[in-house]
Amino acid sequence: MKIGRNHSVNEKKIIVTGASKGIGKEIAKEIAAQGGIPILIARSKELLEELTDEIEANNGICKIYPIESFSREAIEEQINDIMETEKRIHGLINNAGFGVFDSVEDLDMQDLEEMFQVNVLAGIQYSKAFLPHFLQFKGKSHIVNIVSQAAKLPTPKSAGYAASKHAMLGFTNVLRQETRESSLTVTSVNLGPVKTTFFDIADKDGKYQQNVEKYMLRPEKVASKVVRSLFTNRREINMPWWMEAGSIFYRLFPGLMEKMLKSQFDKK
Predict the structure, then answer these.
(1) Residue 215 catalytic?
(2) pTM across the whole model
(3) What is the CATH number of domain 7-265?
(4) Boundaries of every domain in the chain
(5) Position 258 pLDDT exceeds 90
């Protein structure tokens, strides 16, 4: 059930990366439902077109910008296209990302490089490119980075993924400080496991997903909370609340937490 409505989203153009499925898809639908215009970025043109049909069937509006890969060159070309075509952008939601769960010993360096390119460098590139655009306007603008509780509460077999999310959280916190005197809001969204296709790649044998399925967040609930927070002065969104509490205790008592929650941490 959707709670409340954020009227400031109405008629705002908001970029959503990784919009073809999962959290990004639900965020795009929620923006459109509230009268906003989601600018959809993903690698699958077919899925973006399907999402466009769904949004338009519900009297919404959206624009799509497929991208072959989240390489620096492809992103630069795409940003130029968006700026030339759309003229005014009000918000950016860096949602594109993926994970691969492996021990450090088994970590594939190509997987690690790809995770950093998609999870970190792409988000930084989009943020840096649109930052001057956001700062030149007096009205509110917003950058939202979908991060992860893994950035705060790392567990075994998530070294590459946790490192990428830790980097993105660090970038987000610095960007917020550097723009605090402006009308730009910068928000990190730190999530526990969400029931999406993320685990098709991250957890190929399904063991972790099976272990945590009862705790998984619904992407619709995440999307509703994110969109209701757009253009407000929200520093962080942390879901679920008890995992955020756990991450605070972990920072205070890391050795104790690792000892007490070893069986929970080892679920991958």
Answers:
(1) no
(2) 0.92
(3) 3.40.50.720
(4) 7-265
(5) no
